[in-house]
Amino acid sequence: GIPQEAIPEFEKFAAIHPEDLTIQRRLRDLLMATGQVDAAFTLTQNIVALSNSAPEEILALAQLAEYSGHPKEAFNEWLKVAENTADPNAIDRLISLNKGLYRDRDLANILTKIVPLDDHPDYTLTTARLLLELGRYYEAEKYFEMYLHELPQDLFAAQELAALHYELFEYPQAEKWFRY
To answer: What is the pTM of this model?
Structure first.
């Protein structure tokens, strides 16, 4: 491994070559290897700018933002990853981070872009529930129905859909789903 004492020398070398992405990436790797996550996060912000927002650097920034305790920044970067790649890992991170950030609208928007392209029932149900929370009832209805088409045995989701129909004064549909 590289001794901790070598990092200041490498930092000096990187400072002489601030536009060299290879050197900056190596310095980031050294910082990560020695547990200097905050410094690696700050450096990666510069690398993203230098690389013209290369997708792999945005992914690295999302991970480092989360590791270094910056959930808001992590959510923003994972949002970029999800928008560009529809990566299930990015979506999972967004769902997890949203619980503390209350970015329901942003999460619902990205999920409604992605879910129709992907038959992932968990995302479909999450989308339905987020839309319901946001008062986008007719969209929520569509996602509940998509979910129940894939997993008709989920009685809890059927009850949620029934309650939604009831709230919308759509009693025949509510009755259908309450009896489901």
So the answer is: 0.87
